[in-house]
């Protein structure tokens, strides 16, 4: 009996020990996983801190392709993800003792807090001639102070927010990363741009360059009133600097910016003021008058902008008829008055935004979005009522692929390989018929274009030349881009990206644009003056006339002439060495015939019979014509085989109060 009891007890002890070992094994495995995860996150933290230091030290330049414009944002995003994941490290270790890991969590949080405190300052504009230096200075001091940036690194942040002449003046200080260099650089900026005379001169130049305010543009009037308030503040800060604004002659200059009806109203107030024996009113009285009129013009109930909301959907959806199917797309534009820019109203949630940005709409699946648009009779191209997608002239540009369809419909189109297979599967039908069939599947592709039937498509070449573009105020800052020489356009266009790279700010305006496919389209733009251009292998600079900005200048990359193109034709082989190999440059300029010097043919090499010809201009050699008759794929961006065509971007509905007597009609 005693022997059996001892054996049972021994067995029970063995079972208990086995159970304890199994529990310990689970604990060890769990602890190993958590330790491995913490080690991985620690390494990731060190990696992110190293990346932030690389950005702060400025090891990589930011000039080419805007690569580092996105890098700091990505680094900040990774840091935020890391911080959010480690806001409470104890949640990762629910079943383990806290003594060891609490110390690690505290240490990690301290490091993370220090890293977030030295993140790159955001929200500050780059110092330009159009930005007042005192305001820029206060913003920079506030950002660097709030971010607790180490003194030795401030010089790099200062460099980030400078461009043009100010940046060139401080290049020597950027070579020595120290607090003394930063102080000396700020001292030089203060001497050159913080001088009261310089500040006052900047205010004067901005006043003199202020554009004429149109009759129904209340927002522009308010902007003018705000700037007059800045001038009044500057008068008090700098003794005697802007006191000349109290003069009658200076007041005469100021009222030339006002609409005619407002000039008459000011004249009546002036007459009442003088009738009371008070003499001519001071500048402060004029500013109060403009502020009051701006408040009236921007009244949320009775202003012109507010009354736009009473337009019917039929008026908003009315399209402009235009000729279709031509192979020449001549362009003519005229500057028009800028009606107040009104936000669209969402048809789904009735919010002050467009349907393409509606969170409620984007929460639906792609199939449900298409079904909603169909059930509510919305155009697949602009998400508005009143017309079909095939007739849409205000297509939305997708922010993901930059094609002509709403961003909310991105992904709902045939792949390029499927389109190519469909083309090769039936070579007997006409191109226009195929365009119509594709429209059923892909609303973002333009259809209904009339051109010749056939199964083959000839490759073409056009005058798309590599050029260096710069501004006359900073001729050393040049960028290499492609320029399209267009003899059928009366205007010169430049892309927003080129202006941003050159540090240029144009004057906001609107254009009425007419092409062979549409007439009198109202588009937003900016007016830029002082651009210069030269050929990629030439030192001769040509001044460009006033250029207007556009988001993009669409061309077909296969139409850019190259040395290989010239080598394929015996009569053009002599100029092959004059052509630059095709590269991934932006097409940033469209030069119209308002700059005839850039279009003058200096030499022409004609073909013996059929084939392309070569033309030499002051910007270099180009090849024009058919360069191959091989069948190629029809591009979504170039459906009728021409190099240049106008893409219609979505613009706000024109105000009913705008005078349309100056509409432009193009006849061919």
Automatic annotation (TrEMBL):
<feature type="compositionally biased region" description="Basic and acidic residues">
    <location>
        <begin position="409"/>
        <end position="419"/>
    </location>
</feature>
<feature type="region of interest" description="Disordered">
    <location>
        <begin position="409"/>
        <end position="452"/>
    </location>
</feature>
<dbReference type="InterPro" id="IPR005312">
    <property type="entry name" value="DUF1759"/>
</dbReference>
<feature type="compositionally biased region" description="Polar residues">
    <location>
        <begin position="420"/>
        <end position="452"/>
    </location>
</feature>
<protein>
    <recommendedName>
        <fullName>CCHC-type domain-containing protein</fullName>
    </recommendedName>
</protein>
<dbReference type="Pfam" id="PF03564">
    <property type="entry name" value="DUF1759"/>
</dbReference>
């Amino acid at each position: 009996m005693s022997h059996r009891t001892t054996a049972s007890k021994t067995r029970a002890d063995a079972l208990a020990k086995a159970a304890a070992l199994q529990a310990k094994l689970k604990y060890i495995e769990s602890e190993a996983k958590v330790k491995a995860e913490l080690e991985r996150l620690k390494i990731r933290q060190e990696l992110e801190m190293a990346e932030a230091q690389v950005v702060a030290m400025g090891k990589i330049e930011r000039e080419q392709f805007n690569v580092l414009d996105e890098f700091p944002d990505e680094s900040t995003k990774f840091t935020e993800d890391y911080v959010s994941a480690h806001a409470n490290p104890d949640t990762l270790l629910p079943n383990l003792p806290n003594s060891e890991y609490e110390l690690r969590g505290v240490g990690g949080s301290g490091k993370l807090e220090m890293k977030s405190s030295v993140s790159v300052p955001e929200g500050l504009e780059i110092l330009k001639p159009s930005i007042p230096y005192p305001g820029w200075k206060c913003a920079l001091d506030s950002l660097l102070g709030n971010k607790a940036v180490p003194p030795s690194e401030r010089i790099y942040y200062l460099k980030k927010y400078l461009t043009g002449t100010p940046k060139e003046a401080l290049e020597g200080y950027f070579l020595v990363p120290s607090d003394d260099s930063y102080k000396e650089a700020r001292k030089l900026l203060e001497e050159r741009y913080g001088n009261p005379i310089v500040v006052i001169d900047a205010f004067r130049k901005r006043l003199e360059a202020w554009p004429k305010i149109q009759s129904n543009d209340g927002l522009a009037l308010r902007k003018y009133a705000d700037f007059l308030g800045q001038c009044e503040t500057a008068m008090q800060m700098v003794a005697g600097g802007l006191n000349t604004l109290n003069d009658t002659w200076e007041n005469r200059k100021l009222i030339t910016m006002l609409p005619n009806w407002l000039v008459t109203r000011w004249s009546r107030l002036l007459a009442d003021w003088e009738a009371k024996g008070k003499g001519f009113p001071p500048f402060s009285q004029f500013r109060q008058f403009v502020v009051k009129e701006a408040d009236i013009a921007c009244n949320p109930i009775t202003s012109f902008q507010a009354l736009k909301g009473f337009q019917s959907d039929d008026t908003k959806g009315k399209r402009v008829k235009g000729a279709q199917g031509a192979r020449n797309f001549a362009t003519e534009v005229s500057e028009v008055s800028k009606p107040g820019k009104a936000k669209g109203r969402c048809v789904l949630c009735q919010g002050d935004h467009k349907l393409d940005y509606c969170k409620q709409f984007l929460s639906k699946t792609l199939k449900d979005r298409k079904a909603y648009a169909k059930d509510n009779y919305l155009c697949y191209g602009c998400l508005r009522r009143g017309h079909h997608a095939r007739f849409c002239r205000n297509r939305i540009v997708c922010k993901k692929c930059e094609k002509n369809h709403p961003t909310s419909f991105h992904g709902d189109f045939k792949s390029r390989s499927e389109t190519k297979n469909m083309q090769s599967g039936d070579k007997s039908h006409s191109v226009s018929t195929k365009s119509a069939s594709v429209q059923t599947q892909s609303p973002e592709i333009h259809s209904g274009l009339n051109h010749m039937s056939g199964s083959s498509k000839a490759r073409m070449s056009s005058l798309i030349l590599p050029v260096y573009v710069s501004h006359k105020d900073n001729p050393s800052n040049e960028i290499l881009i492609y320029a399209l020489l267009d003899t059928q356009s009366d205007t010169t266009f430049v892309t927003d990206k080129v202006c941003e790279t050159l540090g240029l700010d144009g004057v906001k305006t609107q254009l009425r644009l007419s092409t062979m496919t549409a007439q009198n389209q109202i588009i937003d733009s900016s007016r830029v003056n002082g651009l210069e251009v030269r050929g990629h292998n030439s030192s001769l600079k040509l001044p460009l006339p006033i250029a207007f900005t556009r988001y993009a200048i669409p061309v077909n990359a296969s139409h850019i002439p190259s040395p290989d193109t010239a080598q394929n034709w015996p009569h053009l082989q002599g100029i092959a060495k004059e052509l630059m190999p095709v590269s991934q440059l932006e097409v940033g300029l469209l030069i119209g015939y308002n700059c005839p010097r850039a279009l003058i043919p200096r030499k022409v090499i004609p073909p013996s019979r059929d084939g392309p010809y070569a033309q030499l201009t002051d910007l270099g050699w180009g090849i024009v014509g058919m360069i191959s008759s091989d069948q190629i794929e029809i591009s979504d961006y170039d459906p009728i085989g021409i190099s240049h065509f106008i893409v219609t971007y979505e613009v706000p509905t024109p105000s009913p109060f705008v005078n349309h007597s100056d509409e432009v009609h193009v006849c061919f």
